[in-house]
Here is the input.
Amino acid sequence: MVHARAGRAHAAAGEPDQAIDSWRRAIIAALPDYGGDAREAFQSLTQVVDSQGRWFVPDLERISQAVPNRRMFLGAAYDPAVAALDDLRGGRAQPAFRNARRCVWEARLSGHLYDEGWALTVFADVMKATGRPATELAIRVSAGDGKNAAAVAATLSDWVDLRDELHYGPPWAVAAAAQALAAEADLVPDDVLDPIMDRLLDLAATAATAPLISGQPSREAFHALAAFAGRVMPHRFDEVARLAEPHLEQETSLTEPAIAIVRGLYRGVPERRDHLTGLLKAAVGQPNPGHAWEAIGVLRQPGDALEAIARERAITGDADALDALARWQLHTPEVRAAARRSGGRPAAYSRGPPTQQLGFRRQFRHPNCPEGCRTCRRR
Here is the structure.
């Protein structure tokens, strides 16, 4: 138990290598007498990624067959997890609260990180059942359940302060706090926005080198910046833009949120739109420019620099640029020529749902009409 608790402490302090070593020692010490503790230590190993970016995923089915028993050093006379779920199903709020808290206490005291996260999730379900969404949100963040925490935050009408979790929480709570804050970005008061941006920028600085695994604080912070980009003050512009630039000049796993950051900055800091237009121009030259063209379509104003990007690329035959101009009802010579080649009219692309759109990358055909009929040509 001492080794397991040391493992949890190292994991909470952001020291994954030491945590993994401690849990391995806990497994050796627990077997063969305490198979349940050994199994929990194996499961806790799945909650951290080592300094080399490796994620340890043991074969828990084989491990379960190999351990001789399910005994735990702190085994209770009854299973509070089963009792909490039974009380929750039966609508007994107070017993469910007590049993869920006991689950959290036992898991934390034993150093069982995986079990602790599960117990906190049950505790959050109890708060949801009793109509306490703010408390539910805080508990889900503590559990590292960022997806459900963000879903709860998106439904709230009042801001829940998660700055402590973002600044001082363990890595899994920091990542979940970033996701939840992104979901409630429009509710964050102006007077606390700057410290939150400071922390997100610090975390996101290492996003490009972080493992491609969900729940990494740096990557979640980078995604959260997209939600706050529209509220960035001019003195923060250069710092935020520099963070996004590498992912627009070369396609990476962070290109999509980087484009979302540029969209927010374009609206929030209009005096720097020339610089942002250059970034979007670089993004549409990447192998998968769909999100960049979507941003241009949302931000473009008639006759502006973004429209000029589409016109320029349409001359070279860029299908996305031609599609954009057709949607904007700009019947340039390139659009008309492409429409004739595809057998349709320039305005046809913007009509109907996507499955019936006549773009320049597909040809509409009636069923059983391999050559095209008069009705198809009229489209």
Remarks:
- Residues 348-379 have pLDDT under 50 and may be disordered.
- The CA atoms of residues 72 and 106 lie 11 Å apart.
- Residues 93-110 form the longest helix (18 residues).
